[in-house]
Design goal:
There is one protein chain. The protein has 243 residues and is mostly helical. Helices cover 66% and strands 2% of the residues. A two-stranded antiparallel ribbon has the order 1-2. The protein starts with a helix and ends with a helix. The chain crosses the membrane at residues 37-63, 75-93, 156-174, 222-242. Keywords: Membrane, Signal, Transmembrane, Transmembrane helix. It is found in: Membrane. Residues 1-21 form the signal peptide.
Length: 243
């Protein structure tokens, strides 16, 4: 479980990088093409993501806080809602915009939706059945006591978690990030133009530059450690080990 939790943090970094790359790409296209279509697309996507987050919050408040005993669920939903509002406000502050011109509500909306998923996944694995109705009980509007208490590997949180994992894996596999921290994390750092190639000395003789004379510019051990965390996360998700 500890390894799975650590990989969730790594996955969060990848999601933030994905959101930043998405926003940066569309903003650059809007600026280069001098068209408002990309701006409109950003606004629509941001609105849809926030709408999905609001629906998730309402859904959790309705079905996971029915009983008066579900105090923990109410607290976690409320705290995460407050934190999401705070990060949304911070993302559009002038100082943040000056430091990161391509930051904005799109990144905050993706993190908000991901936070709501993590909250739902946590509450969907609460042992108390009166605070944890199954999807079948919600759909049929019956009590959770009538549903089976046995865990199933194909439950909805596990499926969504695997989907997010696959998306993050495809993203980091198909793209070399410009974010230095993410590059070091996933071993995708691109050498800069003045350091990767040979340099010309006096007399027209080229001299190769070795930027790894003392040590490599990345950590193989840390990269494989992340792979171990990913394996633990998949194992935890497929086996419902957190139950």
């Amino acid at each position: 479980m500890v390894g799975g939790f650590l990989f969730i943090l790594v996955q969060l970094i990848l999601i933030i990088d994905l959101a930043h790359s998405w926003s940066q790409s569309w903003l650059l296209r809007a600026e280069d093409g001098n068209t408002k279509c990309w701006y409109a697309a950003l606004v629509i996507c941001t609105f849809l993501l926030y709408a999905a987050s609001i629906i998730a919050i309402v859904f959790m408040y309705i079905y996971y806080t029915k009983s008066n005993e579900c105090v923990h669920n109410k607290v976690f939903i409320s705290l995460n809602l407050i934190f999401c509002v705070i990060i949304s406000i911070v993302s559009i502050l002038p100082k943040v915009q000056d430091a990161q011109p391509h930051s904005g509500l799109l990144q905050a909306s993706i993190i908000t939706l991901y936070t709501m998923y993590v909250t739902w996944s946590a509450m969907a694995n609460v042992p108390e059945q009166n605070c944890n109705p199954t999807l079948l009980a919600i759909a049929t509007n019956t009590t959770s006591a009538s549903s089976s208490t046995s865990a199933q590997w194909w439950d909805a949180p596990s499926i969504v978690g695997l989907a997010i994992y696959i998306i993050c894996t495809l993203f980091i596999s198909l793209r070399s990030s410009n974010n230095q921290q993410v590059n070091k994390l996933m071993l995708t750092e691109e050498s800069s133009g003045d350091m990767s190639g040979p340099t010309m000395e006096d007399g027209g003789v080229y001299r190769a530059y070795d930027n790894e004379e003392d040590s490599v510019s990345y950590s193989y051990s840390f990269f494989h450690f992340c792979l171990v965390l990913a394996s633990l996360y998949i194992m935890m998700t497929l086996t419902n080990w957190y139950l």
